[in-house]
Write a structure and sequence with these properties.
Three copies of one chain form a homotrimer. Chain A is an alpha+beta fold. In chain A, 26% of the residues lie in helices and 44% in strands. The first copy, chain A, has a four-stranded antiparallel sheet. In chain A, strands 3-4 form a two-stranded antiparallel sheet. The longest helix of chain A has 11 residues, at 75-85.
């Protein structure tokens, strides 16, 4: 890949109940995330799913997956916000490396 | 990112026919995977899709994508199991790095 | 993970309007991509979404996500093609590392 044309970012994938999606969106906007993608109606299964007395995800509970790709400095604020949210709402978050095209990123997301 | 709060894991993404989903779930539970997410009704397309005499994925065949994030030592057993399964059932698997929050991971997945 | 059995590839995730999916598929086939997966009906949201005078993604616009895993040399041609397409059609692309099983990859995708 052309290193010059690609920018390393962080992909954050969040899986939550549909009823908590709005909270996550508010959190992301507050953290200056400029855009995200929602994959609706995913299913979560877990057999160690007990957390504070209730099943973390019921078998086949309908959830939403939210994907956003952000500059690395935004990851910690997002995780901090999710940490608070996940104290009372079930959810998972995965962080991974992702590259975006420099031109595309700066044009699209306006930063 | 705060290295202290994040744990490196492996994300395993498996794409199979819906009728084979149950086999995959059994395989994951047997490999001690504590939870996973299913993205239903994805479509697979391939133009090199011949495998043992039948199309690997028919164009636009309806498939399911199963996503799980596991400790690295679980990857080999999962791939070994999938290897056997994929001898007779079409499917693909991708493995990538993903970070989870330590607190969240240990609380959520109970390990 | 067994390094011997896994091959490093690049995962390319493309998010576009459904009406542009066909163009993307043509581009991928032309770039010698042997297969891909479509996650239909994802939603895009962005609050910096102005590009050439129109909203990049309307709030909750219905989009499709296309996922393909390719050898690294295919990434640049794909990004070049997308660059041209994205001049007139909204979309995003993320590139990340992904490993596939050697045996599986060569058998499945026929290369």
């Amino acid at each position: 890949m052309s290193e010059t044309s690609l920018v390393l970012m962080k992909k954050v994938e969040i899986i939550v109940k549909g009823e908590d999606l709005h909270n996550i969106e508010q959190l992301l906007v507050k953290a200056n995330v400029s855009g995200f993608t929602i994959v609706p109606n995913v299913s979560g299964r877990g057999h160690h799913g007990i957390h504070e007395g209730h099943l973390l995800f019921n078998d086949m509970h309908t959830l939403d997956m939210l994907i956003t790709v952000v500059p690395e400095p935004l990851v910690d604020p997002i995780l901090a916000g999710l940490g608070v949210l996940f104290e009372r709402h079930p959810g998972v978050v995965f962080v991974s490396d992702a590259w975006v095209t420099r031109k595309h990123y700066f044009e699209t997301f306006g930063e």
